[in-house]
Structure formats: structure tokens, C-alpha cells
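Regression test attached.
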Amino acid sequence: MSLQPVPFTHALDEFLHDLVRALHKAVERGIAAARSDQAETDRALADCKDMIDLVMAGQVEEWVGDAGKPKPAA
Amino acid sequence: MSSFMTEKFEFKDIQAGRADPEYVDLLRRVLAIQSDCEIGGPHLYVEKMLPEAPLKLDRLVVARTSAEEIDHFRKFAVLAGDLGVDTTYILQRNNPQRYLEAFRGTINTWEDFAVFGFLIDRVGKYQLEEFMGCSYAPLAAVVEHPSRVMLEEEGHIDYGTTRTAELAAIGGEQKERIQRSVDYWYRTGLDMFGSSTSGRAERYRHFGLKRRTNEEARQQYIAEVEPLIEKMGLRIPDRMQGRKFT
């Protein structure tokens, strides 16, 4: 087993970190609207679903872009 | 009697080859398993519970819980990735391929979602506690105070415990449904601690990656959970029925 770090580790970390922050914002938006604006809560839930579905699909190669490609030999 | 390693490692120590290869193997393994368990939760419940939880606020709680578990995955996956473990397969695998049986099915009912938080996230807390003060400093840092991971897991447990108690208090058929969920997840949770005679668990302890034996942790869990089940007016399930590991 190689002890070389996986090349896209930190690109994946950054992608997921950004997504988690956006997901929390959508949840907060939905909770804030729950008593007064059902349509806004529904939109927030739909946004949550889109983001969670993206993670569940696990298409890491699409998320990390060039960071996931092998580096050309020097 | 086993001797236990007390040395602490940073990432740079591993990179420099200062750690026993067996230690590195076990560290990589435990990070992969922990990553799998964190992302395994949302894979179990989002498909059904995100659209079908009883209230919109409950659905938002499902989304928030998922966000927190994805974030926990991220925190363990980056440690694994730095040690050469490509966690892509963990993000892409189907539920039946998960490391632990608890994550191999799907959660289709609100009762199961509630009890999963009450009982299975609680097992998760025990596992995370093992890493407090462990020999790999970056792993210990994820769970040591102040730890957002631990606080969020406590939140999942509290939410699940409250919902389980509420559903049990309704009585009648509802109480029987929640009892069936408790029966299933309690047995599954007890198995998650692993075999009492596991040789690998002893090696984890030898290298300072875990503190308790599997059986010690299981007994502490039993002592914590059974009074809670009784307090909800539910029957304590047979601890041995259907068990795979004792």
C-alpha cells in the first residue's frame, strides 16, 4: 500500500466543506420560513434534496476536476 | 499481559516512516471504516425520510442530520486521504457493501429513523470516544473537546431519543411499531461493538488506537441504554436473540 497522499484529497475536502455550508444555509432558510412561508420552506427542502442527492451519487471525479487527474511525468 | 504503546504520532511521523507498518495499516483501516459509517447513515435514510418524514420541520432535521454526517465523513476522509486511502469507493458503494451490517439496508419508517438516532448514533458516540487521546494526534483532535463532531452526534442521539419516547408514549399500535424498531436496532447495535474475542481489536488497543475492549464498550452501552428503554415503557429486547457477535 502506498503512503502517498491521494492527490485530490484536499480538493474533495474543499468541495464537501462548501456543500455542507450551503446545505446548512438551506436548512436554516427552511426553518426560518416554516411558520410564515410554506412555499419558501418547500424551495429550501428542494435545494437540500438536490445537494444531498449530489453527494449520494458520489461522482467524485466531477467534483474534484483536474485535481483528480494523474500529474504528467516531469 | 499485553504491553500498550503510549507514543503519539503526527502525520509527518507517518510520512517519515517512524511508525510500525502494522500501526499504519490499522490506522488506515479504522479511518476507512469510520468514514464509511459516517456517510452510511445518510445513505440509509435520505431517500425515504427526506420526502416522507411526518412534518416539514422533521424533513429539515433529516437534511441537517445528513449535512452533519457528510461533514463528519469529510473530516475522517481527509485524514484517510493523506495516508493514501482513496475514499471514492466509500462515496460510491451501495448500501449492501458497507462495512457494518447496520448500514446495509434502508430506513423506510419514521420509527426506524427515530430509533436509529436513539440506539445506533449512540453506538457511534462510543466508537468516537475511543479516539479521544488516541495515538494518532490528528484523529484525536477531531473528537477531543471542543469537538463539533461529538456535539453533533449528541444532538442526533438526543433527537432520536426524544422522538422514540414520544412515539412510545402514544401507546397502542404505535407503541408496538416503535417496540419492533427497538428490538431490531438494539440487537444490531450490540453487534456493532464486534466480537469479544477479536484479535484485531486487541491490536488496536496495543497501538493506542482504541481504549476499551469490545466487550467493555458493549457492557457500558447496555448499562446506559436499558434504563432508557425501560423509562419509555418499552420492553428490553433479548440481548442474545439474532446476534452475530458476542
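Expected vs. actual: identical. The interface with chain A takes residues 14-15, 24-25, 28, 39, 42-43, 46-47, 50-51, 56-57, 59-60, 63-64, 66-67, 70-71, 73-74, 77-78, 81-88, 91-92 of chain B (CB under 8 Å).
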